[in-house]
Design brief:
With 522 residues, the protein is mostly helical. It is built from 27 helices and no strands. It comes from Agelaius phoeniceus (Red-winged blackbird).
Length: 522
């Protein structure tokens, strides 16, 4: 039996099970009641028509969220039916089939209630799905009425086949619904002259994009990136630029979005926005967020980078300026994240940063706790420092900006909340600060400053104590490399046992020794 998962990733928060049940309860209603209530016409006077249409615009996003929630419940139920079927739990299979039938009727009714236009293809799919669900329910009911194992065995393959067909029709219907809604929203973005309607449509697109990569692909395929960049090229929509750019950043996490960005010269548009001083800081920050998204080192598709290189110098210059003038930690985080990603794919970016005195600006920002206020921001800064440290001229900049002291402080980075994402960011800060120290310590002046600031004892502590590095192997390797570099410059800074265990052996042997070390030995 093929996978019965939805063709889209549902974005669901992990919450308490009772809270989840309370949220789902309103959807677990009797099918007949839902059908009767929703099929009742609501008569309205002519002068109330416009008011009704206007109020429906407020709830489009909520209606889509309800639809996605209902779709997730159906998908989950179909998966559970397959599991119960494998165990021959026929009573459970039938009761769950009835429940799915109810949810499918409710989903179709709910969608037809809030949508004002459905295609013929949509109506055909709805009928196919409803008919197949009814057939499925009748089939499982017949299975309950026989106890003959051989007959049940032969019927099981037919039930499996029907279940697979229901799942396929359901997936096709949801795909068509989401595609149609994306088309409707994009039509509003492109054709509406109303600021309110355009803003509402962009807000709904953003909510859809948050539901996962599959929704982003649908929006991109339907021309979402083209439509949104068109908004970013019209002065009359300037107040919508931040919201529009935020939506673009979400959509451009998928390859289809990136292809469209390339086709409409999106990078040139972003460069124009970043370098235009008449735009608000919020607009600049959201443009930086799009740059950070499309330059992410985690992306496997890089066709857009050729046009990026053509505009890189002015983009980097604008981002450094944004870091320097950032009024909040969030703005600094977005700008520095974009810079950090850019330094990964071209060394020319590091040279530009050096010419712009970016090292000094970043180091100064780190001393302002109002601006660099989280491990995530420090992670971006130390990423830039690590990538810039391959340049020989970088050492003198670090010394002048008291950068060694900052790197030493970063070796003590610890999560205060226990949040897994924050703990991971702290590990990256420790690892990259050790990598930066190792690279820069080829310069005797930097090595001497590191020794004076007691970097060696801290590196030893990180190597020998797994809890100090949150049991991270990547932090351990980086610390061993930095320790060996400093030991060459200052061999007197280590005790003999540390030298024999952490410096003298092959790095892999020291690594294995430290990973097997018990806390009681530290």
């Amino acid at each position: 039996l093929p996978s019965l998962c939805l063709p889209c990733s549902m974005h669901l928060m992990q919450v308490d099970s009772v809270q989840r049940w309370m949220e789902d309860l309103k959807l677990m209603t009797d099918c007949e009641c839902m059908c009767i209530l929703q099929s009742k016409p609501i008569s309205i006077e002519k002068d109330e028509q416009n008011e009704l249409i206007l109020s429906s615009q407020y709830s489009t996003c909520d209606n889509l969220q309800l639809l996605l929630k209902r779709a997730w419940i159906i998908s989950t139920e179909l998966t559970r039916i397959a599991q119960k079927l494998e165990k021959n739990r026929w009573q459970r299979v039938h009761s769950m089939t009835v429940r799915v039938n109810c949810h499918v009727h409710s989903l179709v009714n709910e969608y037809n209630t809030f949508t004002r236009s459905s295609s013929e293809e949509m109506h055909q799919l709805e009928k196919l799905l409803i008919d197949k669900c009814s057939e499925f329910t009748a089939f499982t009911e017949r299975c309950l009425q026989t106890e003959d194992e051989e007959i049940l065995k032969s019927m099981k393959s037919c039930v499996n086949e029907t279940l697979t067909t229901v799942a396929q029709y359901f997936g096709q219907l949801i795909e068509l619904v989401l595609t149609q809604e994306a088309q409707n929203l994009l039509r509003q973005v492109e054709l509406s002259g109303s600021l309110y309607v355009t803003e509402s449509a962009i807000s709904s697109l953003f909510s859809l994009a948050q539901e996962g990569a599959h929704l982003c692909r649908i929006i991109a395929k339907e021309g979402g990136v083209v439509a949104l960049f068109k908004i970013c090229r019209q002065d009359c929509f300037r107040c919508l630029y931040p919201q529009t750019l935020r939506t673009l950043a979400s959509i451009c996490c998928v390859e289809e979005g990136m292809h469209q960005l390339e086709k409409v010269d999106g990078i040139l548009c972003l460069a124009d926005i970043l370098t235009d001083t008449s735009h608000s800081e919020a607009t600049h920050a959201e443009a930086a967020a799009v740059i950070a998204q499309i330059t992410s080192p985690h992306l496997t598709f890089t066709q857009h980078l050729s046009s990026f290189l053509e505009n890189m110098e002015e983009i980097v210059t604008a981002l450094v300026k944004l870091c320097q003038e950032a009024s909040s930690g969030e703005v600094f985080l977005l700008a520095s994240a974009a810079l950090a990603n850019i330094t990964f794919f071209d060394t020319m970016a590091c040279e530009i940063l050096l010419q712009l005195n970016a090292m000094k600006i970043l180091l100064a920002a780190c001393s302002d706790k109002r601006i660099v206020d989280t491990p995530y921001s420090r992670d971006q800064v130390v990423t830039i420092l690590a990538n810039m440290s391959v340049l020989d001229q970088c050492a003198s900049e670090i010394i002048q900006g008291n950068g060694v002291q900052l790197l030493m402080e970063m070796l003590f980075e610890k999560s205060s909340s226990g949040n897994p994402a924050e703990a991971a960011a702290c590990e990256r800060v420790q690892q990259k600060s050790a990598v930066t120290l190792a690279r820069l310590s080829r310069d005797p002046e930097v090595a001497e400053a590191a020794v004076k600031l007691s970097c060696i004892p801290r590196l030893i502590k990180l190597c020998r104590s797994p809890t100090e590095r949150n049991n991270s192997d990547s932090v351990l390797v980086a610390c061993l490399a930095a320790l060996r570099r400093l030991a060459v410059m200052s061999p007197d800074g280590l005790e003999d046992s540390d030298f024999q265990q952490l410096v003298k052996p092959r790095l892999v042997d020291s690594f294995l020794l430290c990973t097997n070390m018990e806390e009681s030995f530290v």
